[in-house]
Amino acid sequence: MLPADFTELSTERQLDILYFEGDLLANRYEDEFIYLLYSLDEFFVELRHDAYTNKLRQVTAFRSTDKLEPYLPYLTEIGYE
């Protein structure tokens, strides 16, 4: 599966795939948002969750390692670097 294929799926299907096939790599907090980083096939998926309203706000699929920068402190703690 490619990132573009993943983003074309319904949010419900995306979450099912992440739950059953994805690997949770890290989470981080920024302002009122909780960000979850998953590895899926050969790309990454970031979920942005609003902690105050308890709603999923954004699902982003990407391959670029540049977008991993905010997670680096958390990934090095668990041995991904």
UniProtKB/TrEMBL annotation:
It comes from the Bacteria. This is Uncharacterized protein.
